[in-house]
Structure formats: C-alpha cells, structure tokens
Amino acid sequence: MSFGLIRVANIPPCITLAxxxxxxxxxxxxxxxxMAYHSRQVLLLRHVQEKHLDNVLKRKEQFGEMPExxxxxxxxxxxxNTDANHILFILVATPVEEVGRDHDFDWAIVEPSSxxxxxxxxxxxxxxxxxxxxxxxxxxMQYNLKGLRKDxxxxxYRPGYENVKTLKLATHDLSQLxxxxxxxxxxxxxxxxxxxxxxxxxxxxxxxxxxxxMNFLTKYSxxxxxxxxxxxxxxxxxxxxxxxxxxFRESSPDILIYLVWQDGKAVFCEKNEQGQFIPRExxxxxxxxxxxxxxxxxxxxxxxxxxxxxxxxxxxDNKDTEKQEEQFMKEKSKRYGELALPxxxxxxxxxxxxxxLSTKEV
Length: 362
Hints:
Blueprint: E1 2-7, H1 11-22, E2 30-37, H2 43-56, H3 73-80, E3 86-93, E4 107-110, H4 115-122, E5 138-140, H5 174-177, H6 180-185, H7 190-193, H8 205-217, H9 229-233, H10 241-245, E6 254-262, E7 265-271, E8 277-279, E9 286-288, H11 294-299, H12 306-316, H13 325-336, E10 338-342, E11 348-352, E12 356-360
C-alpha cells in the first residue's frame, strides 16, 4: 500500500485526470483508489474530505511500525475487499494541497507551474518520516499542460510568474529551465533563497521568480497602488483601494452559491439582499452529474454524499432534537453548502459530490 499525490495546476484537468484514473485498468497485481481535491467543492464535503486526509496522512509511525492509516475504516475496507497485492491511494490535487496541509505521501508527480510550487509540493512527500529512501520518489513533468500547446503563449502562469510583457521564458521545457543534476540530489529551497550572481530569467525558472520579485520590490520610481514603493511615499495605505485595483491573483470574479436542501433534494441557490435563498441552477447553467460507472464507483478512494452528511449532522446535534430533520438539514445546508461559482456568461457547469464543480464544453 502507498499514498501518492499527483499535483496539477488547475481545476479542470484535476477533475478530468481523476475521472480518467477511476476508469483505468491497472492489471491483476495493482489496484488504485482515486480522489480529486480542489477548492470548488461544497464546504461540508470538503470538510469531510480534509478530515479524512488529515487522519490517514499522518505518518508519524517509527520504522517498522504499522501505519495508523491501516486502522481507518475507509482504508481498511479497501484493503479487505481488494485482491491485488499493491494498492495505490492516489490524490489528484490542485495547489490547495501545497498550502497549510500537514500531509505525508510516499511519492508525488508534479505538473510544474513555478519553482516555488515544486518546493512546496515536495514538502508533502515523506513529510513526517525521517528514514532514508533508496530511489527517487518525486517526478517532475517535462512540460505542463499549457506548455504542451507550444503556441508561444506563457505556460508558467495562473499559477506562476511568467507573463507576455516582461517575463517571457525562452522555452517551456522544464529540463532546460532547472538544473536536473541538482534536483536529482534532492529538492530544496536553496535556488529560491540564494539568488544567482547573474540572473537569466528567460532561461531559468528560479531566476524568473527572483526577477519577478525584484520588479515588484525595487522599482523605486514607480507610482500607484500596484507597486510597493507607493505604500512608502504615497498615501495608499490609508485606503482599501490597492487591494481592489491590484488583485493578488488575476481571475474572473466568483458568485457565492449554496447547495440548499429543500423538498427532499439539493438545489443550488443564491442569497439575495433580504437573506432569502433563490434557486438559480438554470440561470447559472448548473447541472448535476450522472451516477458513476461501476468501475469508477469501485475505484473511489472516499465516497461522499451530501444528503448523508447533512443527516449525520442532525444525528450528532443533541441541541435540536425537537426540530424536524428536513428543516434542520435545510438550515445547515444554507451554512455549510457554500460554493464559489466562477462568473462566466454562457459557461455550463457540472456538479458532483465526488468531483465538485467542473466546467463543461457547450
């Protein structure tokens, strides 16, 4: 048994890859249990997912000790009901796995978007264990998905530091953007901390990021809310305008929607100014996904069901025993059913308890 992480840069390929792996044939000797992990998931189900991951990926056992994950009911069920000799638990995740997650994986595959992300993601491999390894356990893709287009557009952005105007890489081949020999010895933060004497931001990924930081921090003649110097010489710090005019990450705005339980089913609603929850699935082009195939159902790492989790909340809440179950579920879903929907006109969205919210071609 091993726990592996596949890091992809964006949500659509995260969902697509997870679906592909769930339908995969792994041969007689291997079996894979797959889970998609990203930010566009209903709050309650994401909590259930992260609680499970926090439990099974706490790998602080000593050498030779039985991992605590073996005692987890979900993991134990898979072990008891799988004939294969090798079981792979695979988490397909976006950069949400890089931030604030104290997880320990046995191996990882990384779609690169920045040198920083490579360092952060590698920090999730054997994070809790101090014993040595006998072979490489982190694989870096030679190209990310955007780089495979080979159309001349930036590939290491959103997330990443590359842009068309000032920080354009000469190639998107990672084997030419990093020192492969150094990475073979081990992945650490030295290239991102120790700046080279001569920066080559078009040829080296770490240098690109150093140059991006210098452009932001050392342009002392710049004025306006987009530069650091203005905070020292102007009065932008007295307002909240810089945060509005200079977004941390350029992206389309989001609409908060809520998966509300009403009339025996879950419906996506928007909350109006009066605090009322108005059904908006048709207006926002949201459809619910069809049931999984038998093979995908079998290969799911963790099955989640929104209705079941709401009913579990009702059973666990001893203070509201007099309240009707359906009414309780409706009230809790208005709080824990929150989800951020991209505000894109004409875009069709598909929601699934297992994969969260994904876009679909129309």
